[in-house]
Amino acid sequence: MKIITLTETEFDKFANNHKYRNYYQTSAYGRTISKNGYDIHYIGIIDDYNNLLGASLLLYKEVFMNYKIAYAPRGFLFDYLNITNLTEFTTRLKKLLGKQGFMLVKIDPLIPVNVRDNNGNIMNINNEANIVLENLKSTGYTYQGPTLFFENEKPRFEAIVMLNKDIKEIYQEFEKRVKHKIKKAIRSGVEIYKGDKDDLEIFYELIKKKYNKPLNYYVDFYNNFEQDIDLYFAKLNTETFVITSRLQYEKEIETNNELANKIQATTNQSTKRKLINEKIESDKLVNTYKKNLVWATNLLKENPEGLIIGTALNLCYDNVCYLIIEGFNQNFKTINPNYLIKWKMINDYKNRNFKYINLNAISGEFNKITKYSGLNEMKLGFNSLITEYIGEFELVISNLPYNLYKNLNKEKKK
Known about the structure:
Layout: E1 2-5, H1 8-15, H2 27-34, E2 39-46, E3 52-64, E4 67-72, H3 83-99, E5 102-107, E6 112-116, E7 122-125, H4 128-138, E8 142-143, E9 157-162, H5 167-172, H6 176-188, E10 190-195, H7 200-207, H8 215-224, E11 229-236, H9 238-265, H10 269-302, E12 307-317, E13 320-328, H11 337-351, E14 356-361, H12 373-380, E15 385-389, E16 393-396, H13 399-413
Parallel strand pairs: 4-5, 13-14
Antiparallel strand pairs: 1-2, 2-3, 3-4, 5-16, 6-7, 6-15, 8-16, 9-14, 9-15, 10-11, 11-12, 12-13
Helix pairs in contact: 2-8, 6-11, 9-10
């Protein structure tokens, strides 16, 4: 067995047909990341007859005393079940990278452990996952554990919306609150359309606070994956928003007046108390809807052509839509632009005969309330399935510098 350098073309030819293929293990992603703080290298693993057994994009950077850390995003494209080949490959990789000043390699293979329903209950188990876990441990990789949140480079849990049913059936299986939010967004005048590369600055303004990535990262990402990118925007039709707000206000005024008349006409004290309580709640709604109408009216004056309030960047890979990142103007949270964008995505990719939509990361805590519960609630409300991946492993190449580096990082965190 030998480890060799591959060209982009050689790497993509192998990677695009591998069992564990994914968009992180592509030259397009490599080119993106190489312009944003990392060096890259494409390695191949060949047997004694020059047959290619595996390959990987490695990202790396110098982090401590001229020592480097490497990362294979979503793992090596390699047969982890073959313990003989895995052992030999790991030995040769450590020897090679040790000579080149590396102290650590991280991997997080795209190997599912199980599939869960939207309540977190296990539906299907991948029996091979335990074999892979034990093989990696026995060949020197340190398992970082079955983490539940976002401790690793990539999430262990992702929400998946299957597209193998009729669109009406898909919609009916959404949670009631999700259908309510979609309808409210439509009534409020939210309209969904697709943008292009010229709209990336608008997109960036809506997502820039979510991750510590510059605009150039998304420009590079778009350029390298351009034929496979979909950029969605949610635009508020401010004229419709005023009409909806006025109707809502006027309807509540009517309800409020009816309650006032009923209170005056009622002699039964129990009934009167109930009506008074309803009137108090209605008074609050009248006040809220009046403020909303003033707000909507001002928005129309300031933005007669409408206002962009939400966005999502998707990557289409291997007949699947991957939601890369989304964002929206928090001032418009109550009209749910992010829910309507997802509903539009589901319709579009269903029509394109995609297998599913990957809504990206969720947490793995399904029983306790955490700061990520809202994230889970939103994504799982679309009747999503949950894919749980095996997790992250570290292969220490040089113990002394790595231990020093790790201890220094602990002190910095303190």
